[in-house]
User: Fold this.
Amino acid sequence: KAAAEAGRHKGERLQAELCKARDVAGALQKESVLKEVEISRLMEKVRALTVKFEELQQVQQVQRTPASGQHHQKVRQSLQTIVQKLVVAEEATETSLTCNACLNV
Assistant:
């Protein structure tokens, strides 16, 4: 009877750990989805800035003025900043997805 009682307690403990692991997995999955949305938004910004950058390069080929050079530098800095954010967001998403894979095993 004592062995059955100990087995029941162990089963309850394992059930509680399983519930906790599922909660953590759910939270990580939600965070992963949010990161993917953030990456999508950043990718849209990159596309828009890339178009502006290409347009600016075409304009600069036609006319070379100091004002457009400054704007060119600002666009380039914006692109670099967004690409850096994308790299960080992508690495964070990969980490979250790896954690989810570990918990779902």
Summary: Residues 2-104 form one domain. The two ends are 33 Å apart (CA to CA). The longest helix spans residues 2-62. The helical segments are 2-62, 66-104.
